[in-house]
Design brief:
The protein is of the alpha+beta class. The protein folds into 4 domains: 326 residues, Collagenase (Catalytic Domain) (3-Layer(aba) Sandwich), CATH 3.40.390; 82 residues, Carboxypeptidase-like, regulatory domain (Immunoglobulin-like), CATH 2.60.40.1120; 167 residues, Sandwich (Jelly Rolls); 85 residues, Immunoglobulin-like, CATH 2.60.40.1930. The chain contains 11 helices and 33 strands. Strands 1, 2, 3, 4, 5 and 6 form a 6-stranded mixed β-sheet that branches. Strands 14, 16, 19, 21, 24 and 26 form a 6-stranded antiparallel β-sheet that branches. A hairpin with a 5-residue loop joins β32 and β33.
């Protein structure tokens, strides 16, 4: 920790000495002023980086879910009385062009990535962040996402004008335009460092948007200034931060810009530098300066890329200190709601299923329960795109629709579920209960906050990769500080709904569990996670976990090896801190519960799921062939390298079919074949253009 606070002090000194007469960005100056004037700012800045680093570490290599984050944007146009489209009172077209540029650059859709030199092309990242002009204001009223305010004086802009015009910074990206003079193009606030009523981005009106909508004749009329400043707003430093610091693999993650795949530069670059310029020496590989990175100062036409390391920081920021943006309704037209109905049926009999759950996961989450005939109704559904899931205890959950648009004229859907199968990854509530006598740390079904204790992950920061949704059952989830809400002085118990093991020929129970027992004040950990199974009259212990296994660990048990299978089985999970005289940090989690046949668990499953993909590599058409028996409920899911679902086939699977991937960008893709019984296998293929 001392190392990090020393770094903050060093950055303050560098900010004072490093502001050039040619400074284009005022963010460093603003940060330095904040650190000097606010005694708590340094601690908040360090806390940001701690959360970001912990998130990145915990999610390294994990495929994403709900990967595209859309940020609602409101533009506050500050003028002195000009007509709309004249001078300071810039046109709507200029603003709309800026939204286009942000979306192109943050989604790697800008054509000028072709100009990036070959040695950096593999570093160009799709940040998977999109921006929309807000359609709803903080009060729920319809909006254009553009406000216009006349001020005869813009003195002390941050203190006088920002608070008077700002929309809720936790739900919107606020961008102000004004005249910043002759040297500064724009500036931004880092998350959670300065005053919250000043949070946002300020851009000189001449450098917002791109030509021809931007009519001003400058070298910065392609909209890249906003791309740069929004990068700061999402936690990025300049690539030349602190000059030639962070030049080795040992220190690149906490010196300089704290990102290891952006080679440091001695100072800011301007105009069009030499392509093979190299102002710092890195080890073990010395690289050229990456002056074409958006976080440098070159002319707009030369700014072309973000890296994967920058992507990690910005995505981590959106999942930690700016997490509230992901629940914003700023881009949802809440005035346009409608009533939507559908049905859930048994896939075999086609009979309606009572008490089935349906989840519409989109701009807002909507969950409904079916009636006695299997019908469900959602009142006041917002127009928009949704992932649709359905499930019922005793059936396999169903991912029915991916990013499908629903509006007032959408046809009703019918969702078939395959049973018998008791599967639950906790995206919906199927009736698990909790009990216990501990003083805290109770089980809850939620998106895990994550916590770290003495450098170790005590609670998970995410649920099991690859299942539906983002929720699991986890203890102590009310705080990210482990000692605040861990299981303390007693037991907290999680209990499944009853399941009928006699419906199976040879039933297994399978799940992923997490357990952490951390020493506090030098005490020896003496706590445990006790996993039990009950058949209505007897209880047997499946596992007694005493040592920390603070990672998702899949376990499976043959029920008949432990207890007589009945129609009233339950799984029970105790997390125990029983010795009040020996306090330690105790946490647990559970995800992806399943009751399944032995044939699915064993080697027969591997043989059943033999399939191939050809041609591989492909230029567009992909053939999928195998010995999987065609059956209702089989799913084919295609994901790109970031984990985003780009193709989905259900109910149509035969032993040979084709996918047309020609509209997708070149890259590596993963095809998962999942049968109605829950068995699955994944292969990869390359798409070339």
């Amino acid at each position: 920790m001392l190392k990090h606070f020393a770094l903050v002090s060093f950055m303050m000194a560098m900010a004072l000495s490093g502001i050039s007469q040619h400074e284009h960005c005022g963010t460093d100056k603003l940060l330095n002023q904040t650190l000097q004037q606010d005694p708590g700012a340094a601690a908040r800045l360090q806390n940001n980086w701690t959360e970001i680093e912990n998130y990145i570490q915990a999610n390294a290599g994990r495929s994403g879910q709900n990967t595209i984050v859309t940020i609602p944007v409101v533009f506050h146009i500050i003028h002195s009385g000009q007509a709309v489209g004249s001078g300071l009172n810039i046109s709507d077209a200029q603003i709309l062009s800026q939204i286009d540029v942000l979306n192109e650059c943050y989604r790697k859709r800008n054509a000028d990535t072709a100009l990036v030199p070959n040695w950096f092309k593999s570093d160009i990242a799709d940040i998977e962040i999109e921006f929309c002009l807000a359609t709803t204001d903080p009060n729920g009223n319809t909006s254009t996402g553009i406000t216009r305010h006349q001020y005869n004086s813009t003195a002390n802009f941050d203190v006088n004008i920002k608070p008077a015009t700002q929309w809720d910074y936790t739900k919107y990206l606020n961008i102000w335009t004004t005249n910043l003079g002759t040297s500064i193009l724009g500036y931004a606030t880092f998350p959670n460092v300065g005053p919250s009523n000043q949070d946002g981005v300020v851009i000189d009106y001449r450098y917002l948007g791109r030509a021809p909508a931007n009519p001003f004749n400058t070298n910065y009329k392609l909209g890249k200034t906003s791309v740069h400043e929004v990068g700061h707003w999402l936690g990025l430093y300049h690539t030349f931060q602190d000059s030639c610091k962070g030049t080795s693999a040992a220190d690149c993650s906490f010196l300089g810009d704290r990102i290891c795949d952006t080679p440091p530069s001695k100072e800011a670059n301007y105009g069009t530098p030499n392509l093979v310029q190299n102002t710092c020496t890195e080890t073990p590989v010395d690289e050229y300066d990456m002056w074409m990175n958006y976080m440098d100062y070159v002319d707009d036409e030369n700014l072309q890329m973000f890296t994967y390391g920058q992507r990690d920081v910005m995505r981590a920021t959106l999942n930690t200190v700016r997490l509230s943006l992901q629940s914003s309704l700023g881009c949802t037209n809440v005035a346009n709601t409608f009533t939507y109905s559908g049905k859930v049926v048994d896939a075999t009999s086609n009979a309606g299923l009572v008490d089935a759950k349906v989840l519409f996961d989109g701009p807002e989450d909507f969950e409904a329960t079916t009636d006695a005939l299997g019908n469900f109704t959602i009142n006041n559904l917002y127009e928009g795109n949704y992932n649709v899931y359905a499930g019922k205890w005793g059936y396999m959950e169903k991912f029915f629709a991916s990013n499908q648009n629903f509006n007032g004229s959408s046809a009703a859907i019918e969702i078939p579920l395959q049973g018998p199968r008791y599967y639950d990854d906790f995206i919906m509530n199927f009736g698990w209960t909790t009990s216990g006598n501990s003083n805290g740390g109770y089980w809850t079904r939620d998106i895990p906050l994550g916590s770290f204790y003495q450098g170790e992950e005590a609670n998970p920061t995410q649920d099991v990769a690859g299942d539906y949704g983002l929720k699991c059952f986890v203890t102590g989830n009310s705080s990210s500080v482990p000692a605040t809400d861990d299981v303390d002085n007693g037991t907290t118990t999680l209990i499944s709904p009853p399941f009928n093991a006699t419906l199976y020929t040879d039933a297994y129970v399978r799940f992923n569990r997490w357990f952490f027992s951390g020493s506090q004040n030098g005490n020896n950990p003496d706590d445990n996670m006790l996993i039990k199974i009950n058949n209505g009259t007897q209880t047997a212990i499946l596992e007694n976990v005493t040592a920390s296994q603070n990672e998702w660990t899949q376990k499976q048990f043959r029920i008949s090896d432990y207890i007589t299978p009945t129609a009233t089985m339950r799984l029970l999970i105790d997390v125990n801190d029983l010795n009040s005289g020996n306090p330690n940090i105790v946490e647990g989690a559970l995800d992806q519960f399943d009751v399944l046949e032995a044939a699915i668990v064993g080697v027969e499953n591997e043989e059943e799921l033999t399939f191939s993909i050809y041609p591989n590599p492909s230029t567009g058409i992909v053939n999928i062939s195998g010995n999987v028996k065609p059956q209702s409920g089989t799913e084919v899911i295609v994901k790109n390298i970031t984990g985003q679902t780009v193709a989905y086939v259900s109910e149509e699977y035969t032993s040979l079919f084709q996918l047309d991937m020609s509209s997708n960008p070149a890259g590596l893709y993963f095809v998962t074949l999942r049968t109605a019984s829950g068995s699955e296998k994944t292969l990869k293929f390359s798409l070339r253009k």
